[in-house]
Amino acid sequence: MSWLDVGLPPVPGSPVARLAEQSGASLPWLKAPAGAGAPAKSAGDVVVDPAALPPSEPAPAAPKADAGAVVGSEPGQGPIPQGALAALVGRPKAAPGVPGPEQGAKVVAVLLPLTGQAQALGQSMLDAAMLATLEMGDESFVLRPYDTGGSPEAAAEIARRAVNDGAGLVLGPLFAAEAREVGAAVGGSGVGVLSFSNDRSVAGGPVNIMGLLPEAQVLRVVAYARQRRIERFAVMAPNNEYGQAVVNAMRSALSAFGGELKDVALYDPALEDLTPVVRQLAHDNPQRRAAVAQLQGKNDAESKAALRRLQEEASAALGYDALLVAESGTRLKTLAPLLPYYDIDPAKVKILGTAQWDEPGLGNEPALVGAWYAAPPPASHGDFEKRYEAAFKRRPPRLASLAYDATALAAVIARTRGFGRDAITASSGYLGVDGIFRFRSDGVIERGLAVIEVQPRGVKVVDPAPATFQAAQN
Fold first, then answer.
1. SS3 for 236?
2. What stretches of 212-355 adopt beta strand conformation (E)?
3. CATH code of the domain occupying 214-375+454-473
4. Distance separating alpha carbons of residues 175 and 197, to the nearest angstrom
5. How far apart are CA 410 and CA 424, in angstroms?
6. Which residues pair with 430 in a beta bridge?
7. How far apart are CA 454 and CA 71, in angstroms?
């Protein structure tokens, strides 16, 4: 079952309809249930609990709400800070009170760092959660944001409070250390946790992890490379938990699909200049490189033959046909030109990556054009980015979609199966903006990933993500 099949139609004047009018976008993902009987309740009837948002600065008594403020529902409460609620619903009328579980509300807590070093990311993820609430929730769905500040101790205490306040499901927290404490805090309460972490060590008990697992990405791209008869692999990765996970995943993938791991280069994550690492992987021979430089540009037959021999010698010295680079962002773009300079020729060595590469502009670096990486299908994620940008006038960070999908899942099961473990771990899974996903009994997420090729002006899907888990297993 997917929430695309059970979306609710926007009604005139609802926040979702206003968003559509403002952006000029259509809402094809929202459609009336087949054979609808009684009128569907509008996504505009969603109740968001303002009392749980971070408190604003103290204000004088009886403050006057200005044009951008959202007035709280409780008597005497000051204006709520600008954010998702203000951006999406403007200035709704003050409600007499937010319904709780005793009034039949389906309460979901979302734990995010709304202050502290990760405040910007936390706010963007809350915005995504609000967007999902407005698009997918009904009038009984209540989303309560809580600020963890990025602190594991605070997250644990807040999770206990959220459960005591009636939350039937906890979304978040963001970091693994927080998720570990939250799992211990709510254990035995029967309340599940959908953490945004990608650290599988925190999964289990009440905790499920929503994050994009590096292991799954490596397995997917290596499986595709093996289908293309690539046999010998190398890995370049930082010497930290993420890098070790990538290397271990490569070993597992080659054990499952065949092939050889010929070289591994682990390096200090704080290393600024990655030239020594690339030279190590290239088995650099300065004399040969100098001879190649002298021959390049010469057009006589003898020089061309000598150049070919030296290039073949360099390729043979490498000993591998594909190199997985576990880097991203500026560091990836900085090291990419070093690869062909040190004779790791992308025309002969297929460059591979992970979902960390899922960012604009990679095709501007010629050495990365033609590289493959595994990530959620870009089309549906791109649609989410457009809706988010229309609502908030800025691009969402990559992790914002995790909050959207978790909230949308919560909204769907709230009105269909409830928040029980059997609903969360439904074997058929769910379809979100990051493709199909489901949770195993141990709390680890499974996703349907696409294989994507970097192009000079964007990306191209070279192997689509599966549409169902049955297709993924065949």
1. strand
2. 232-238, 260-267, 322-325, 350-353
3. 3.40.50.2300
4. 5
5. 9
6. 437
7. 47
pLDDT tens across the length of the chain (474 residues): 222 222 333 334 434 444 444 434 333 332 222 232 222 232 332 344 434 444 433 333 333 333 222 222 222 222 223 333 333 333 233 233 445 554 567 999 999 999 999 999 999 999 999 999 999 998 889 999 999 999 999 999 999 999 999 999 999 999 999 999 999 999 999 999 999 999 999 999 999 999 999 999 999 999 999 999 999 999 999 999 999 999 999 999 999 999 999 999 999 999 999 999 999 998 866 666 666 666 677 787 777 776 677 666 666 668 899 999 999 999 999 999 999 988 898 989 999 999 999 888 899 999 999 999 999 999 999 999 999 999 999 999 999 999 999 999 999 999 888 999 999 999 999 999 999 999 999 999 999 999 999 999 999 999 999 999 875 665
User: Please, what is the Cα angle at 448 between 424 and 113, to 5 degrees?
Assistant: 60
Instruction: Order the strands of the 47-48 sheet from edge to edge.
Output: 47-48, 141-147, 106-112, 169-171, 192-195, 207-209
Among candidates 129, 142, 123, 154, which has minimal Cα distance to 47?
Answer: 142
CA 466 centroid distance within chain: 18
Residues 295, 305: Cα–Cα separation, whole Å = 10
Alpha-carbon gap, residue 211 to 416, rounded angstroms: 25
The CA-based angle 418-421-425, given to 5 degrees, is: 105
- Taking CA atoms, 93 is separated from 16, 21, 69, 107, 319, in Å, by 17, 21, 12, 21, 68
The domain 3-58+105-212+379-443 having CATH identifier 3.40.720.10: the answer here is: no
Place of tokens 């644990």: 156
Burial class for 296, CB neighbours closer than 10 Å (0-12, 13-18, 19+): exposed
Q: Cβ distance 381 to 448 under 8 Å?
A: no
Structure tokens at 60: 């004088």
**Which stretches of 316-399 are assigned E, i.e. beta strand?**
322-325, 350-353, 372-375
Residue 28 has which token pair? 């094809």
The domain spans of the chain are: 3-58+105-212+379-443, 214-375+454-473
